[in-house]
Write a structure and sequence with these properties.
Layout lengths: L1 E2 L11 E3 L15 H9 L2 E8 L16 H18 L1 H9 L4 E5 L4 E7 L3 H5 L4 E6 L2 E3 L4 E2 L7 H5 L2 H5 L9 E6 L20 E2 L14 H10 L15 E6 L6 E3 H12 L13 E4 L1 E2 L12 H9 L3 E5 L20 E6 L24 E4 L3 E4 L11 E5 L5 H14 L5 H10 L20 H9 L112
Parallel strand pairs: 1-14, 9-11, 9-13, 10-11, 13-15, 15-16, 16-17
Antiparallel strand pairs: 2-6, 3-5, 3-6, 4-5, 7-12, 8-19, 18-19
Helix pairs in contact: 7-10, 11-12
Length: 567
């Protein structure tokens, strides 16, 4: 598993808290030492500015599925919110001649490298929520192990049985945030989706897929690898892959670069109208030196990706066998953490154990094969095509789950992210202590059992508590109603500008555009908005628009309306 280490200073001391609307002089700000030193010396420093305005991704129409127009609405809301709130800070930084400016619209933040002198001015702006030091994180290489019989890992979780039913991941796109991928390996070459929207190197070192350490090649081959070496090595050989080169060739990345990677996955071609995002992303990396601590730098990224319909899988870490050895981001509330087992059905001694330090829930969620598994290795630019390696660690357990999600996504295209996670957990084979525990989680996942769970899952409870003809659950035939107790709040409503209420369930309160009709908009739980009868279609809409108890032509206000004239 890749281990990410803070550079220079513990990242838990890097936040500058600041209340919106207060000046720097009126609020005493605790400035992290590394930033204060830069301010005192007038040095250039890299930092991340976060803004107070947020899109509520929990109520967007795309919640849990994120397809087509629904995902486009979420992405547009995120971009619009960032554009609307970052203008003044952007101008200040440009005036300060910042040498690097990167918009992180997925979390409404701005990464910058500039003279530290500008930080006090930024903190005085009411739209600024906080500033953090943009620390450098580093990754390690794979752990090699002795040779093992190939494919035992795939058989153990019953992947070939699902292949025999016609489900190999065809039509599904998976992604990895790792050291890169060796596209020259014959087990990976044909499954790369190809094109500019299928490879992202935020460091600008490689225009096409490349891997300097092999770690990313190992993990991706366990997700989608073929059988060029004589045996199948990947869970979903029919799926396609794209990748983010998270770490540069020296094995390092700024935190803001990791944010960029998550953001790119949401919209690889920077066009919200094209649905080219992956359905699942594998993350075999974490902060090993923040043992049993809860560090939520990337929790918002994970939440946004899942709201867009993307499953987000993390390796649990290699800090066992003691309990309370969880790591971030795998232990974040929105993550899905995977521990490792060997061929003898024992949890790997170094597989991290729970509970999660973030919310004391069980950790990991499930376990998968991760000891002496056969994976594709670097080919030296294609010169060594028959290159394989036996690897161990939770880094290589997580890709089994990512591949399983690809198989299930093909079989059940309408399943939500929550449905898929639940199917893997509830159908897992329970080992160790009876019930969920902090060594096995729910147990060893079984992809055939997960498929059967989804087949037999009860239909969603399709409730329409406010009778607005929109349901409060997914897969009920309508866009998701974000407030089932107020008929004025639904995906068809007009969103009243700047009233603090999201009437149309797109995750944000509208700030521009035409005003809503007098009779439309929110109800917001308050009194209804009344309008006169007699104009437009108010005499044929079956509504008591003026609140006098009379509807349509029975109302005297409609006496001259053409719909009510006696012929």
């Amino acid at each position: 598993m890749k281990t990410c280490k803070p550079f220079i200073i513990s990242m838990f001391s890097l936040v500058l808290a600041f209340s919106a609307g207060q000046s720097l002089l009126a609020q005493e700000v605790q400035i992290a030492p590394v930033l204060q030193q830069a301010i005192d010396a007038g040095q250039e420093v890299s930092f991340i500015v976060r803004f107070t305005e947020r899109v509520d991704v929990g109520v967007v129409n795309a919640q849990g599925q994120g397809k087509g127009l629904e995902r486009a609405a979420l992405l547009q809301a995120l971009k619009d919110t960032a554009n609307a709130s970052q203008g003044r800070v952007n101008a200040v930084l440009r005036r300060a001649q910042a040498t690097r400016l990167v918009q992180l619209w997925a979390i409404n933040a701005l990464a910058a490298t500039a003279s530290a002198d500008v930080i006090p001015e930024l903190l005085s702006l009411p739209e600024v929520e906080s500033i953090t030091f943009d620390a450098i994180v580093a990754g390690s290489t794979s752990e090699a192990s002795s040779a093992a019989v190939s494919e035992w890992n795939l058989d153990l979780v019953r992947a070939p049985e699902l292949w025999s039913q016609g489900y190999t991941g065809t039509g599904v796109v998976v992604a990895a945030m790792d050291s890169g991928v060796d596209v020259n390996h014959p087990d990976l070459a044909s499954s790369w989706r190809g094109g500019a929207n299928s490879w992202f190197d935020p460091h600008g070192e490689h225009g096409t897929p490349f891997d300097s350490t092999g770690h990313g090649t190992h993990t991706m081959s366990l997700v989608v690898g073929g059988d060029a070496g004589g045996t199948h090595i990947g869970m979903a050989p029919g799926a396609q892959w794209i990748a983010v080169k998270l770490f540069n060739d020296n094995g390092e990345a700024l935190q803001s670069v990791i944010h960029q990677g998550f953001q790119w996955l949401l919209d690889p071609d920077d066009n919200v109208s094209t649905d080219d995002a992956p359905q699942a992303v594998n993350n075999s990396w974490g902060y090993a030196n923040l043992l049993n601590q809860c560090y939520q730098e990337f929790e918002t990224d994970i939440e946004v990706l899942k709201a867009s319909g993307m499953s987000v899988v993390f390796s649990a870490g290699n800090q066992g066998p003691e309990g309370s050895t969880s790591e971030s981001p795998a232990n974040n509330p929105k993550s899905f953490a995977v521990g490792a087992v060997d061929s003898a059905m024992s949890v790997a001694s170094n597989s991290s154990r729970g509970p999660s330090s973030c919310n004391q829930s069980q950790y990991p969620h499930i376990v998968a094969p991760g000891v002496s598994v056969r994976a594709a290795d670097l080919t030296s630019g294609g010169q060594l095509p028959d290159s394989y390696k036996s690897v161990s660690g939770t880094s290589f357990a997580a890709p089994h789950v990512t591949g399983a999600i690809a198989l299930l996504r093909q079989a059940y295209p309408d399943a939500s992210v929550t449905d898929l996670e639940q199917s893997l957990q509830e159908s897992a084979t329970d080992y160790g202590q009876v019930g969920v525990d902090n060594e096995w989680g729910y147990g060893l996942f079984d992809v055939v059992a997960a498929s059967e769970y989804l087949t037999n899952a009860p239909p969603p409870p399709c409730t329409d508590g406010d009778s607005d003809y929109f349901f409060a659950a997914l897969n009920c035939g309508t866009p998701l109603d974000c407030n089932d107790s107020d008929a004025g709040i639904n995906p068809d409503a007009c969103d009243i500008k700047r009233d603090g209420i999201d009437q149309n369930c797109d995750g944000a309160d509208r700030t521009k555009g035409k005003s809503c009709p007098v009779s439309g908009g929110d109800g917001g739980g308050g009194d209804p908005v009344l309008s006169p009868e007699g104009k437009g279609n108010s005499c044929s809409d079956s509504l008591d628009n003026d609140g006098d108890g009379l509807v349509d032509c029975l109302d005297s206000g409609c006496s001259k309306n053409r719909m009510c004239r006696v012929k």
